[in-house]
Amino acid sequence: MVLPLLAFVFGSLIITAVALVMMPGKAVAIDRRLEELTLREEDAEKKPRLQSLIGLMKRVGEKVPRSPKEMGSLRLRLVQSGYRRDEAVTIFFGIRVMFALALFMFFSTPIVARPNMTMALAGLGAGYVLPGMALARLAKRRAHRIRLALADALDLLVVSVEAGLGLDQAMTRVGSELAFAYPDLSDELKLINLELRAGKPRAEALRNLADRTGVEDLSSLVTMLIQTDKFGTSVAQSLRVYSETLRTKRRQRAEEAAAKTGVKMVFPLVFCIFPAVWIVTIGPAAIRFITVLFPMIDNMKK
């Protein structure tokens, strides 16, 4: 009876001593708090600089000539990337022009190498094209994140609708529940709620959701919800069937990606692994061949 009690007391003392040693003192806590305040002040100082830079891009973008045909697709691509502000198009044009001019100045001045007008013109064209490619990449990544979040969102939506909530209230609840795990889809669902509160019909708000995201699975879900609302069928049953279908499509996409792995591994094998294997296996024989053959050729010439 005494030994377990002594062991418990001894272990408690050790844990208390370690906690006291690792506990930060008042000076450390004060320094940490001062560091947090300093970082906040630095962020506050950097914010006006960022605002001034954005203002410069806006001024440059306002003077850029725009094509009406390009404006619609560009605005849609910006919305699909998550940039919904009214001045997003103007800022994007400013970024495109400033980046193109920066690359032109970089290649036309002797900063790294001799000035080359051909490289400068190529840099000018690349600087005009690369922001559009980066924007397309951002839209694709955001669509991929929304596609991954859609299955979990549908499960929550099915549970909410079967619990007695209406479709609008269920989407609002799912949007608030997914705010931490899937912020992109959560923002889209919250935006639907705002559009419905503003007086838009549900079908139009759902179509806007499909256009803003550019996700094929979400467009199919929107079409299914509109048809369900039009024909008066059970929303919960339709959502459950579509959720199972979406799970099947996700599994098929995973199997397809796994099947492509073998083909994608050919290029690293050919360019990275096979040369090293050839050097290890053929290298000694080649060296031996050279050391034996070249003296024989020299002797034959003599």
Written overview of the protein:
Among the domains are: 53-139, no CATH class; 143-254. It contains eleven helices and no strands. The mean pLDDT is 78. By secondary structure, the protein is mainly alpha-helical.
Give the rounded overall mean pLDDT.
78
Oligomeric state of this protein: single chain
Order of helices and strands: HHHHHHHHHHH
Radius of gyration: 31 Å
- Ranges where pLDDT stays below 50 over 5 or more residues in a row are none
Shape: extended
Share of helix among residues?
Answer: over 70%
* Main beta-sheet strand count, sense and barrel state: none
Strand content: under 5%
Counted beta strands: 0
Number of helices, where a helix is a run of at least 4 consecutive DSSP H or I residues: 11
Content-based structural category: mainly alpha
Cα distance spanning the termini = 100 Å
Q: Brief description of this entry?
A:
The protein has 302 residues and is mainly α. It contains eleven helices and no strands.
Give me the secondary-structure topology.
Layout: H1 2-22, H2 26-62, H3 68-81, H4 88-108, H5 117-162, H6 167-177, H7 183-198, H8 202-213, H9 216-231, H10 235-264, H11 266-301
Supply the key terms.
single chain; 302 residues; mainly alpha; 11 helices; 86% helix; 0% strand; extended
